[in-house]
Design goal:
about 290 residues; alpha+beta; FAD/NAD(P)-binding domain; D-Amino Acid Oxidase, Chain A, domain 2; 5-stranded antiparallel β-sheet; 3-stranded antiparallel β-sheet; 9 helices; 11 strands; globular; binds flavin-adenine dinucleotide
């Protein structure tokens, strides 16, 4: 998707890699942006699409702790650099409060580890050593392929680890600065965040195009429209966590029993539909 977006925008957008904004100062006519490496520039509008730990949000709205709520879970992923055993099947191993899984991604195996934790003290989203230590500590007693996954996690630099978090912020825009995607409204990993981020970008573009000389009303309409999609998805975490990372052995047993019954329930629904008397189409002769 990143490649598609790059190709679609390369003629119309200037892209700076390996840099970050360090300060934002706006007045009625524009925003002065200071970068870590590039020279300062002035823009009509700043859109912070820089994810859960958004720098734009911190600079324009305040510290992360005010808006980012840890949902009691951490997630890690690491590529196993080996072909997946199955093109479709995800294999999950649970212990109370912990899940280890192997997913097929374009034919390659990807490990995902999700575990319950009230909050790692002084958690640093970019501190790989801290993340490896947390995984080793949490999964040290687990069997299945977990010891192998821990060895791989220990040896790799390609480990992604973060808190599962929800972002809630009263308003997404301040003057000429606005937020998009996870920066504005992370719904955590259980809520279709990529899909919503793309939909939000489209709504933002539509509304800016509708009133190009009135950014205030465009940004207000963007937020009002897109919140109707995002807000209902922000409450999915508890039910998804109960399903994927049950907290107790009894919870794991219940989930396993329920998941064995799902195919039966689905087959029953299909059978009922197939056997139900068909209504004649509207306007059909009797
Ligand atoms: C394990 C996992 C699985 C998921 N699975 C799904 C799924 O199946 N379907 C789905 O729809 N969603 C899924 N999500 C959620 C999805 O990944 C996010 O909601 C989505 O990536 C948000 O997009 P974004 O562009 O807002 O932020 P991000 O994808 O986080 O992108 C932000 C970008 O900004 C860059 N950046 C950060 N800080 C700066 C800075 N200071 N300066 C410049 N650049 C910066 C980052 O490098 C990054 O490229 C999943 C999330 C996780 C953690």
């Amino acid at each position: 998707m990143a490649r598609i977006l790059m190709e679609a925008s390369s003629d119309s957008a200037e892209i700076l890699f390996g840099d970050t904004i360090t300060a934002l100062h706006q007045d009625a006519h524009g925003v002065d942006v200071t970068f870590e490496k590039a020279a300062p520039r002035r823009f009509d509008l700043v859109v912070g699409a820089d994810g859960l730990h958004s720098t734009t949000r911190r600079l324009a709205f305040g510290p992360e702790e005010r808006f980012v709520e840890h949902m009691g879970l951490y997630v890690a992923t690491l590529p196993l650099n080996a072909p997946a055993d199955s093109p479709t099947d995800v294999v999950i191993h649970n212990a109370p409060g912990r899940m280890a899984s192997i997913h097929p991604v374009h034919g390659q195996a990807l490990a995902a580890l999700i575990f319950r934790h009230p909050g790692i003290p002084d958690f640093r989203p970019r501190d790989l050593d801290q993340h490896k230590e947390a995984l080793a500590d949490t999964y040290r007693d687990d069997g299945w392929r977990v010891p192998e996954l821990l060895d791989r996690a220990r040896a790799t630099d390609d480990l992604w680890f973060d808190s599962v978090s929800r972002v809630r912020i009263d308003r997404w825009s301040d003057g000429r600065i606005t937020l998009l995607g996870d920066a504005a409204s992370s719904v955590s990993l259980f809520g279709d965040g990529s899909t919503l981020a793309m939909a939000g970008a489209r709504t933002l573009a539509d509304e800016l195009a509708a009133t190009p000389t009135d950014h205030r009303s465009a940004l207000a309409r963007y937020e009002a429209r897109h919140r109707t999609l995002v807000d209902p998805r922000q409450n999915n975490v508890a039910s998804a966590a109960a399903l994927m990372v049950p907290a107790t052995s009894a919870g794991i047993a219940l989930r396993n029993t329920a998941s064995r019954l799902w195919p039966l329930a689905a087959a029953g629904t299909r059978l009922r539909r197939a056997m139900a008397p068909r209504k004649p189409p509207l306007g059909a002769a009797r």
